[in-house]
Amino acid sequence: MNEITITKALTNHHNEMRDLIEEIKKDKSQYILLKKHLDVHHELEEDLLLRILNNNKDVKDESLESQEEHFVLNMLLLDLADFPKNNPRWMIKFKVFVEILEHHLSEEEEDLFPEAEEYLSEKQQKESGKQFQELKAQRLSAALETKPQESMH
Ligand SMILES: [Fe+2]
Fold first, then answer.
1. H-type alpha helices, 48-149
2. Global pTM?
3. What is the pLDDT of residues 46-77, one digit of tens each?
4. Spatial distance between the Cα atoms of 87 and 33, rounded to a whole number of angstroms
5. What distance in angstroms lies between residue 76's CA and the mean position of ligand 1's atoms?
6. Helical (H) or strand (E) element with 40
7. What's the gap between Cα 28 and its chain centre?
8. Burial of residue 7 (number of CB atoms within 10 Å: 0-12, 13-18, 19+)
9. What whole-number distance in Å separates Cα of residue 49 and Cα of residue 113?
10. Distance of CA 111 from the midpoint of ligand 1 (Å)
11. Distance from residue 112's CA to the centre of ligand 1 (Å)
C-alpha cells in the first residue's frame, strides 16, 4: 500500500499542518487539532528518523537541532493550550508560534531531509515511510477518536 519515503511522508504531514494553520486563523477552536497533529508528528519523527540520524556524524548536528526545536515548540503548544482563547493576545501568541514553526518545517525540508535521503538506503526510507503512515493513522485516530481516513489506503 505505501511506497512513500519517510521524508516525503513527513513533508506531506507538514503541508497538512500548514493547511490547519490557515483554518485556525479563521477559527481558534481548531487549535487542538493542530496540537494533536504536532504531538504525533514530533514523536514519530524522532522515533523513526532523528534517532537514526543522531548516529551519523555528518547529519547529527542538524538532527539534534531539529530535536531541540521540537522541545521549544512543545512548550509553546502547551502555552497556547492553556492561555484563554478569548484574550486578544492568544492570536498574537499563535502567530509568533507559527513563525517559529514555519522556520522549523522549512529547515527540515531544505536541510535535514535531503541529508537524510543521502544517508539512508532507499529500502530503509520506504520502510520508515510505511511505518510512519501506519502509526500516524493509528495515533491520530486514537487522539481524535475518529476512524483512520480511507485515503490512507
Ligand atoms: Fe517535521
1. 51-53, 60-82, 89-107, 113-119, 122-144
2. 0.90
3. 999 999 999 999 999 999 999 999 999 999 99
4. 20
5. 16
6. helix 31-45
7. 20
8. buried
9. 10
10. 12
11. 10
Domain boundaries, the chain: 6-142
Q: How far is CA 110 from CA 13, 47, 77, in A?
A: 15, 20, 24
Q: Which residue has the higher pLDDT, 2 or 83?
A: 83
| Residues in the 5 Å CB sphere of ion ligand 1 | 45, 108
In the reported structure, the alpha carbon of residue 153 is separated from the centroid of ligand 1 by a whole-number distance in angstroms of: 22
CA 69 to CA 148: how far, in whole Å? 29
If phi > 0 it is left, if psi is from -120 to 50 it is alpha, else beta; for residue 145 that is: left
Rounded to the nearest whole angstrom, what is the distance from the C-alpha of residue 30 to the centroid of ligand 1? 20
Can you tell me the distance from the alpha carbon of 76 to that of 94, in angstroms, rounded to the nearest whole number?
9
148: which 3 cell numbers? 483512520
Residues 11-33 have a mean pLDDT of 97
Task: Give, as one character, the DSSP assignment of residue 5.
Answer: -
